[in-house]
Amino acid sequence: MPFQPVILATDALIYLLVLVIAGFVVYARRQPHLLAPWQQVARRRVAMGAWVVIVLYLLIGLSDTLHFRLADGQDATGQTRYATQVVSLLDVMTGSLRERREKTYSAPFATHLYSKEMVDLPDGGQQRLYPALRYGGQHLAEPSDRAWDIAWRGLLGAAVGFGVFVLLLLVRYRCRMTTLCELWRAPERGAGRSAWGVLAILCLLVGAVISLSAVYHVLGTDKVGEDVLYQVLKSIRTGLVIGTLTTLVMLPAALLLGTMAGYFRGWVDDIIQYLYTTLSSVPGVLLIAASILVMQVYMSNHPAEFTSLTERSDFRLLFLCLILGLTSWTSLCRLLRGEALKLRQMGYVQAAQTLGVGHFTILWRHIVPNVMHIVLIVIVLDFSGLVLAEAVLSYINIGVDPNTYSWGNMINSARLELAREPVVWWSLTAAFGFMFVLVLAANLLADAVRDAFDPR
Amino acid sequence: MTAYLIRRILYALPIVIGVNLLTFALFFVVNTPEDMARMHLGQKRVTEAAVQAWQAERGYDQPLLWNAAAEGWQMLTETLFFTKSLKLFAFDFGQSDSGRDIGYDISQRMWPSLALAIPILLIGLLVNITFALLLALFRGTALDTWGVVLCVGLLSISGLFYIIGGQVLIGKLLKLAPISGYDTGVQAWKFLILPVVVGVLGAIGSGTRWYRSLFLEEIGKDFVRTARAKGLSEMAILFRHVLRNALIPILTGLVVVLPTLFMGSLLLESFFGIPGLGSYTIDAIQRQDFAIVRAMVFLGTVLYILGLILTDLSYTIADPRVRLH
After folding, report:
1. How far apart are CA A90 and CA A233, in angstroms?
2. pLDDT digits (tens, 9 = 90+) for A254-275
3. Which range of residues forms the domain containing residue A294?
4. What pTM does this model have?
5. Which among B14, B293, B300 is the nearest to A274, CB-wise?
6. Residue A274 and residue B160: Cβ atoms within 8 Å?
7. Residue A140: what pLDDT?
8. A-chain residues near B27 (CB < 8 A)
9. Is residue A235 part of a domain?
10. pLDDT at residue A180 greater than cutoff 60
């Protein structure tokens, strides 16, 4: 099917980030001193298990980043016409989830709506009862078969997932059974074992969920009947974007100003210190609120600059990253300044100065590479906090655009549903659950990364 | 000491001025008052007269920095910068966009905020230090390992979950405390139970982990080894040597947040319907009341800087080795 790629602003930054990481990996493979701390991380069992979970999230997030517009027919001149709606690879992969909309709330695995409605009976009369769903569980001949059907389909999917896992294992160890046995026996391979263990669990789960979601709403549906599983999957990209891009958009400024302040001292130091002290003195939430309010005014007064709804919400997401970055940038800058103050006393820096090397060459060649471990630690440590912050900000209405899928928006719209009778708990639980798994994995990995890279 | 204090306050002044200029730029230069008026009144079908009237009513009809139409000093004083921004330095917050006196509102709403924030701070401190001491006592054992794992798990849970979970579990299912609301005077304690419990619970993970690392740092020091060599019991070491020395960073960490307690907790107050400054700010953000947000940004900054100065002072009191010049 022909398609036309669309690159939104955040997409471009994500591609750039992926390229930089790929470049670093290629470069670091030949540099043992760069590889050593990563190997130390790889020996930690908990960290490797967490890493597998994060990779799954990253894959889903990346597949949601590949945006394009599908062709929908041809116009009079024979040119292919493209739909106005921008979709991502994830949308295509989960196509049926997105399209199978119910009327309103339904519980996970339900076959009927959660509330009673007036329904026209075939004989012409009317009765208040629970109407059947349009899609969920409608393949069942008898509603009483549901439990067996769920168990059977779940097992089938899990079996396929396990097959995929065994395949991966065989590919990794090139079908040598002896290496496979060693993997389970040798104690020093503990980290690899925990990674494969987590992968096995994930394969089983994903397999079962894919198989079940073909005919059920595994996590129920929300107020307008949209599948909750689809919503949480779409929210992954928003969470990841906020967690990573926020630190990265302000990274060049923090790196440059921080090292400059520490290296040059004097009036440069004074100005830069004044700048970040002023910014960090404003309470973070209030600065974000003020900036978002100002941006809302700007956007409502310049509607022409944002052609589509997708662009509009993407711009807001990027702006939120910028503002969050502006508030979190200052602590990184202070750390970098302190480190640069220490480094400028080092013998190799003084030698370079004596030899007449230019100041900015020294900064680039001697100072910046030696503060990168701090940058990495801060990026990893900030990640989980930023994912959590997104939810809080969306609740105060200063987070991402209300049209963007995000865990914060899901929680915000679902929090009044707890007052309903019967309680609508599934969207809230799904959002909290997915967020918790990502943040926990990120925290566990961050601990290992900090231990490996922090010389103290 | 006095000289140091005066110098610190003089250092703080340019920062407050910087924040003041920043908020002025954000609220008046990037978006003109006319933009604000149009947004409040609706985008398309609004007459020029209505916009003018909205601005005049709230005093937004003056020029930004220089009033050429006025005489003498009034060329400077009858400007937006003077009336809206400089007056903040005298803690004259003016009127909100809906016409209420912001200074009066703040003085009224400060007390519920404190009534919530102080118990959370004290109880949280007690609970976190107790747990952290327990983990430090059993360091290196399975209890410590699993305790830390539990802490990481607890701090990975969204703060919103604690609030919503607490409301459903304690308020709705067990009916132990009212879900939200507030009362005047002493009667308010009933309404404070649930938010205090939730506030303390939500901070246990990060707090315990942080205090544990402080204690472990002290345990590794030479004087602890000496104390152990003298034959002191582990409990005596923990309380008399480790806890007392770790109190310095703990106390100074507390002092820095003391002034900001006035600002209240944004989430807890708005979820539990407590009429403090936190919910005041949130309401202002949601109503897009720029005057209140501007006032709160300024107040928050001043309190934060005050906290930093107090921290430096508390160092000299808590740690005799520190001398300020």
Report:
1. 9
2. 999 999 998 988 899 989 988 8
3. 228-453
4. 0.88
5. B14
6. no
7. 75
8. 290, 294
9. yes
10. no
Q: A278 and B160: CB-CB below 8 Å?
A: no
- Whether residue A298 and residue B18 make contact (CB cut-off 8 A), yes or no, is no
Q: Look at A293 and B290 and tell me if their CB atoms are within 8 Å.
A: yes
Q: How far is B20 from chain A (nearest CA, A)?
A: 10
Q: How far is residue A231's CA from residue A219's CA, in Å, rounded to a whole number?
A: 10
Of A400, A27, A410, A396, the residue nearest A230 (C-alpha): A410
For B108-318, the fitting CATH number among 1.10.3720.10, 1.10.645.10, 3.40.50.300, 2.40.30.90 is: 1.10.3720.10
Query: How many domains does chain A divide into?
Result: 2
Q: Is residue A107 part of a domain?
A: no
Q: Which residues of A touch B168 (CB under 8 A)?
A: 418, 423
